[in-house]
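B., you asked whether I could sanity-check this one before it goes into the benchmark set. Here's the sequence:
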Amino acid sequence: MNALPVGILVLAQQAAPDDWSETLFGLDQDQRAFLIFVVIGCSVGLILGALGIISSTINKVHRRRVEADMKRDMIDRGMSADEIAKVIESASPPEDATQRWIASWACKKK
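And here's what the prediction gave me:
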């Protein structure tokens, strides 16, 4: 009775490598592991890249919506276009170095 499960286990172990070898282009176990790591790494990279793009887009939309609401509020208060432009231009500086550099180039007069 004990020999039957062991025999089935041995048959399963012998059959499994052949099935996988044929399924994954005849690669051996080390090559399959490397291929799986590469696929997982690329998948994680794509997912993180997509999440970065999505979060950046959401952040930009939120900032523009807040700016539009602020402009609408200033117009409702009766401020002129010149006063609104002065308030928008005197807004807080960008947080990171790249945005500060871009802002400094954009503000330079030609």
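One thing to flag: The first helix runs from residue 3 to 23. Otherwise nothing jumped out at me.
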